[in-house]
Amino acid sequence: MKNTIKAILGATILGLAASAASVASADTLSDVKAKGFLQCGVNTGLAGFAAPDDKGEWKGFDVDFCRAVAAAIFGDPTKVKFTPTNAKERFTALQSGEIDLLARNTTWTLNRDTALGFNFVGVNYFDGQGFMINAKKLPGVTSALQLSGASVCVQSGTTTELNLADYFKANNLEYNPVVFEKLEEANAAYDSGRCDAYTTDQSGLYAIRLTLASPDDHIVLPEIISKEPLAPAVRQGDDKWFDVVKWTFNALVLSEELGITQANVDEMKNSKNPDIQRVLGTEAGTKLGTDLGLENDWVVNIIKGVGNYGEIFDRNIGAGSPLKIARGLNALWTKGGLQYAMPIR
Amino acid sequence: MVSQDTIRDTGSSGASFYNDPKIRGLIYQVVLFVLLVSFIYWIVGNTVENLRRANISSGFAFLHGRAGFDISETLISYTSDDTYWRALLVGLVNTAVVAVLGVITASIIGFLVGIGRLSDNWLIRKICLVYVEIFRNIPPLLVIFFWYLGVLSALPQPRESLELPFGAWLNNRGFFLPAPIWGEGAWLIPVAFLVAVALCWFVARRAHQRQAATGEQFPVLWTSVALLVGLPLLAFAAAGFPLSFEFPKKSTFNLLGGMQIKPEFMSLYLALSFYTAAFIAEIVRAGVLGVNKGQTEASYALGLRRNQALRLVIVPQALRIIIPPLTSQYLNLTKNSSLAIAIGYPDLVHIGGTILNQSGQAIEIVVIWMVVYLGLSLIMSGAMNWFNAKMALVER
Description:
Chain A is of the alpha/beta class. In chain A, 40% of the residues lie in helices and 16% in strands.
């Protein structure tokens, strides 16, 4: 009897000790390589950014960023599993290690960088918050400043919700917030006429407008009330993984600067331009890729998999998509925008 | 007891000590206790270590930070400049309001339907049966969606609001009522009401004493109603009718002014009431059926009239059966109110979720949720236990 008890006790304590040791490893890159796929947190369904298509395959601007990281690690953009997260779940999912990377139109703020324990890899979309109204029902309204007394639909736990409160307070306007946890619920409530206005990032407004019953009745008001630098994020405390994701983003933008596209990447490998040689890993004796913990042809894999930043933008949200969002602030720095890649050398 | 102890004592003096049931029981308890403590220690230690490693700040200090977001329904004053703490309090009040109103309404509907199921009228009996079977077999979330999306969103837009009598309006933004504005001297009315309550208690006691002494009865019920209605009315008149109304008026976006009952609150309140009432109806039916038929017959034999027999004999015994399961239904209703999150009613879970996301303090918020719901449940079951003890059979 005593021996049995001893054995049970010993086994339990051993079990506890063993499980304690396995919690939250700090080497995400090795973990991802070991399990053979990247677990990426994306939006639950925002047209153009992250939404499953009619075949159930995830498509979008943020989705393609996840695929780019997978291509950099595995040479295969399909080795990604997507976790749809709503605004509230997204941070816990990243903190707890359920996802390796969060690419879900998330605004980069100091609080999220510090108190929440994240690192943002770079702004992949410069956005700003706006308002959408049903112009047919509210013909006289052409400015957000006319929204005094309006009911406004908003998603909870977002910077949007805070900007909304600040904007109406600063302009001494009354309003009535109607707050939903899920994007779909907020969309449905706005579409059914529960709210006069809908507020979120402007890119999101254009995407949501496409999903409404009669998109042409709705207009996006001209005011932009905030800066919303949207950025993919990883957990703090794992610099190696942070580097991989950060440089994947820089490689996408830099490839656009250098004119490397999905179509011409194989030709470009023969280029004599030293910048291009360094980026594509064809420079003699290069170890830029291996220093990152990847193969030296990592950028070739990224571009073959998803194309450069400009191609991803056009395909999902730009001229080549139903959203037709202009590049605006997201044009390259050489073309009057803000997208500026750090040199790969 | 004594003989049992002697047998155990002789047992332990013989064989080795771990065959002694007392000592063995003690060992099991100690082992369980040690395991439990080490498990908790490990969980807490692991959490703290992981939070530290992930550079996530912890502690409850964040509650003093500025909330920064607005809340649509606030019964206590609140602006976006208030603290997270205040916002949580707003959520708690909203939860409590919907829970208390829901419990009252569900009880009323439940008792009516429960009695209706025992009615002699075939139609009433079947209608009540259908009601119970429908609401008992649908998940509460669907009932909430039914009210929110099926009923209240189908109401007209603000510009085509339905005009109701007494200056009230109905549209898909809610139910608009004229708001009463109390003038000078209105404080007399609640005071008069309190006086009336005290008088009722006094009258009831005197009537009881008189009946015990002389056998004469006194119409306590009608006297009480007259007091409770008459005294406040008298006070209202004495203060010079200090009441005016603010009527809701149409504006650009919606009706302004007056009192507004929002569709989020309405659908949650109605859904919880109707859903829980189905269960209460069954409990009530079981309670009434649980009283032996002989009790009714005996009270008739004693010369009691039908309503006296019900009030003095049947209902008190039925309540003893009804109250314990009724308590769990009240607790269920309170906890189901957290489904508010699906339709955007700002209850405790909804606001806590927003704070969780703005501050990132997941563990702290979840702890607050658990403590608050535990507290609410304990308060409610405490009150019901008190009521149950009062109603229970007193053994002399």
